[in-house]
Hints:
The protein has two domains: 2-97, no CATH class; 106-315, Alpha/Beta hydrolase fold, catalytic domain (Rossmann fold), CATH 3.40.50. The protein is 46% helix and 15% strand. It has helices spanning 2-29, 32-69, 74-97, 106-109, 152-160, 181-188, 202-214, 257-262, 300-315, and strands at residues 116-120, 124-129, 136-141, 165-168, 194-200, 221-228, 244-249, 272-276. Strands 1-2-4-3-5-6-7-8 form an eight-stranded mixed beta sheet, with helices on both faces.
Amino acid sequence: MAWVARVLGAGALIVVGWAAATGWPAIWHGHPAYGILLAVTAVVAAFVVRRGTRHQGAANDGGAGLAASTRPRSARRVLKVLVAVLAVGWLAGLVYLRPFSATEPALAAMRSDGAVTVTESATQIVLRPTGTPDATGVFFQPGAKVEARAYAAVLRPLAQAGHPVIITKQPLGIAFLASSAFAQARSAHPEITHWVVGGHSLGGVVAATDAEAHDGDATGRVTGLLLYASYPASDLSTKLACPVLSVSAGNDHLATPGKIANSQLTLPPATRFTVVTGAVHASFGDYGPQPGDGTPTITHDEAREQISEASLAFVSGPAH
């Protein structure tokens, strides 16, 4: 099995190198969890390759008789096979979890100016109005594996209009692993008395859960749910008191128009549905094309402008 260990170790180093080379900006600016996994994988892989090479040399020096006498028992063979299978699964997970990196104009939107101050930490991005902020803030959950910075351009108009915006950075780019992020944001920003929680795709699923849990709170109450190409995982049609806006894309092949239509049964009757004709799933952020998505028939800038306008009208509406 020594050669298998060496192959897996070398493969792991290749995977780590590939992930770093193709997704470094997102890794550097994202939640540290994925970068830590890559670093740990690289260290273990280097150790396995070195150890396997040394053992192979020792086996060659010892001769065939010694190799036969030290042949592992059946249980050890099964264990080694199991470890090898788990290692392959681990590497497949690292490949799958490589994040989508933010592109322009989101990167430009990350710069502070006279209207918006942008701060970034290991776990969140905050777009803060430079003037007197509105009492209604926005908390946003990115889509699966999408770098948080990718939503800076589409959400910046909300901050320019006076609404503080917090975009959370999810561990491994999975919204379910950031389910406590909204509670932390509420504690850190007591000056925000009303919250609109929102999210893209899988992030919207978690945002819907937050809305259900907090739309009746006495302080820091959720007063709006903003869904980008998303829908709740459970029936909220009679459980949610706050207003809801669902913004979807006409050419989306992931959160398809059919799925969005079906979500009308799981959202409150007063939910507003806005369809951006010609847009796709990846139109809600700046991170490039997404596998399995449709083909846009409007420009990315046109789609973003419509999404931002609908979002701003909702967040600034009288209901909040």
